[in-house]
Prior knowledge:
Helix 2 (368-380) packs parallel to helix 3 and helix 5 runs parallel beside helix 6 (474-486). This protein is 11% helix and 37% strand. A hairpin with a 4-residue loop joins strand 52 (840-848) and strand 53.
Amino acid sequence: MANETRIEHASETWLADSTVFEVNRIPAHSDHKCYAHDPQTNEWSDLRQSLDGEWRVEVVQASDIEFNEEPFVRENFDDSAFERIQVPGHLQMAGLMNNKYVNIQYPWDGHENPTEPNIPENNHVALYRKTFTMANRLADTKNAGGTVSIVFHGMATAIYVWVNGMFVGYGEDGFTPNEFDITEMLHDGENVVAVACYEYSSASWLEDQDFWRLHGLFRSVELAAQPHVHIENMQIESDWDPESGSASLDAALTVRNAADAATISATLKNSDGNVVWETANCADPDTSISTGSLNGIHPWSAEDPVLYEFEVTVIDHAGNIAEVAVQKVGFRRFRIEDGIMTINGKRIVFKGADRHEFDPKRGRAITEQDMIDDVVFCKRHNLNAIRTSHYPNQERWYELCDEYGIYLIDETNLETHGSWCLPGDVLTEETAVPGSKAHWEGACVDRVNSMVRRDYNHPSVLIWSLGNESYTGDVFRAMYKRVHDIDPNRPVHYEGVTHNRDYNDVTDIETRMYAHADAIEEYLKNDPQKPYISCEYMHAMGNSCGNMDEYTALERYPKYQGGFIWDFIDQAIYATQPDGTTSLRYGGDFGDRPSDYEFSGNGLVFADRKPTPKAQEVKQLYSNVHIDVAEDSVTIKNDNLFTSTGEYTFVLRVLADGEPVWQSERRFDVPAGSTEKLDVDWPLDLYRDGASELVLEVSQRLAKATNWAVAGYELAFGQTVVAGSKKASAPVKPVDGIVTVGRWNVGVQGSGREVLLSRTQGGLVSYTFNNREFVLRRPAVTTFRALTDNDRGAGHGFERAQWLGAGRYARCIGNEIEQIDENTVKASYTYELATPQRTKVTVSYTADTTGRVNLHVEYPGEPGDLPTIPAFGIEWTLPVQYSDLRFFGAGPEETYQDRKHAKLGVWSTDAFKDHAPYLMPQETGNHEDVRWAEITDEKGHGLRISRAEGAEPFAMSLQPYSSFMLEEAQHQDELPAPKHMFLRVLAEQMGVGGDDSWMSPVHPQYHIPADQPISLDVDLDLI
């Protein structure tokens, strides 16, 4: 920036002035890499110098700063008393400010009255300082007539910058670079940069995202040198024509001091480093480069993310390299054609998630490894798309998405939810920010401009988003126009128009949040004018993602083009507790008020990036390959757009009563977009007689290793169950069996086992094998589950309060003892549920001298308008050592009625692994379609539960905590050290839901009607 345009003195008034959002900032430009020499592939730029590392900082009240006389900006200021802090990093994570989490409301609401564009009086500022000496290459570049800038890649919420005591500039929008020319302020030796980073500014009104309100310099800070002749911006169109199969590249270069350069040459290299095209041109300030038609170019897609390297070399008049600019490109065409979004000519379906940049120790100051871990999770779980909710991400993220193959909706750093919405979703259009208020237009247009300019060249970016939950208005028309002025090809996305359809023209896509599948279908059936996506759906808060298949089923409609699950990662922060332990904490746990508490916990992965059990369902439903298995065939539907299934291995297995008995590996070559039925000669006759049921399974696996998974990694599967002909054999009665019908108890002994049934205690009071006791207190009827986040949000607890105590406080009102024969006795107990209806439930135990006990629990159904039942069965307290679990059912992760696209097989786990550490403790660990389960100690001794002959499979869980312990606790570390194990054996449990976590109930088909009979029929054996 020329000196005559530079503002030389800072003004405090900028903080609350919505029309001032940058001062002296270098215009936004592409993120291409620059070198002073011909670089090697992926070489670090020698024109960059990191300022990351230790800085010094002091946090003070903003009112204590005197701008014109502030001593901390001076070069010789003594900052020895300042704290040390790592950059990138947050002030909160360094313990210098308090963590705050709110969703919709502004964090100062109630402490002060939010009135835009005013900022809170209680405002903090962090005074940062760092000394640095320019690297030789940067100094040489400067001395040769080049420039040096300082780049702040991420900060919150507004910064003033000084170098060597001289004012540099002011910046907002901390999610795109704030870059300032500091050439004239630098000198030889040590230099000092000082930054005043403010907690609040007028920008805070535009940054009301559903996230932790974290501050400081949270992305890298660096110096960047630009040679005298410098390519300031590269805008590259790398197109691929699906009709001709040819490609083309057109690049518009902005060249500073082009008159001092002789030529500008360009080369295009493939992934092997071979030149596939090259040219040379005379240098011009606005240099255009066009390849014309290119043949043999491999197109880019998420399925096959082939990248090329576009390299531009500036040669000066002496024949020397002045600068080399490098940008990786992918050739692809993304368009809306006939109302359908297509990539390379094929209809696309986004199988996505919304992703905050987050880490429980570093907040939004995430590392490259965090990003790689997230990309790998996506690829392994069949996610092909991410929405950068709700701000542009680190530049490295886009490079990784280009490289691994992830489609992106790139979203502007804009959310103003609390400005236009009152509790109860009451719309207040007149207070909306930015709305149609002219004083906000500049800042909002600048934000979208900065994003588009920076990220334009990334093939992974398919859609530009104007922001999130900011209502609508004329400002969005200005933003939309700016985007399409720069980029006429990519579509623009904005969901806010759903609140005011007068502004439908600011989005090229029909996009909604949390619309139910039936409402979406209604749109799709009625002549839709635009392609449809759910920019947020499947609110993955806690134990969620039920009925997701209702959404993926909409893929049969051409204009349904997928959705983005909210969201990717739990936003929770590690905190040290008074006892010295460290645990995850959510909103309100840091004394932050107001707060929205655990509402930040919506991830497909936990805060530590471990997958949640929900990911199992998402992986199967998001798969591009669908496998339908039959007794004589397999039908494979290949929804990949470009990749044949010949790239994969298919493993065929037969499971006899859950155990694998046969396996074969095949190659099925089904072209992309095709469905084929393929004959399979399953060896059923070999195994049918030895099993009650056979599972036929086909598994799609990687044939070779990728950069995200090893060879043999499973991507999808299909199964079917066929009946076996094995007959159940009656257990042999032991010769030492004894049945004792006493006055108070009935006992059955035999085979080293003993069963004791009490006339007064209402059931089974002892069950032993070689003196090992399995009954601490009699198994109790349960009609309750610990509420999930979705249950709480939908009011299930209020509506079903009677079921909380119905089983817990049920009373036994009668029993009947019947000796069936000399080896068998049946004890039936009638319970009266603790409800106004006093419904009668029968619990019967039929025990014989083999030690087997049949447990049969019957609910007759209660006429009337009763709320549905959360769960029905028994809960059994076991000694703590019985923590291992092996079961034959749907798994391996927890499953529920509305979330069981899981594999049927035999799985091994334990009570601790089965306890999913959701931020708010809640129902967890359930397994559906269970044929049998074994609960054992480390020596293999324990209890086996099997469905009785002719009975339906059951549901069960083994947990270190009871349902009521889970219900009572608000954090995982509030749960006590386990002293018992808690076994739940259920006839049914209602689904978990997932449409949202504040209003929508579990769908009716996944409820348990109270007016219908329910039966649990299982056999118990000690092993």
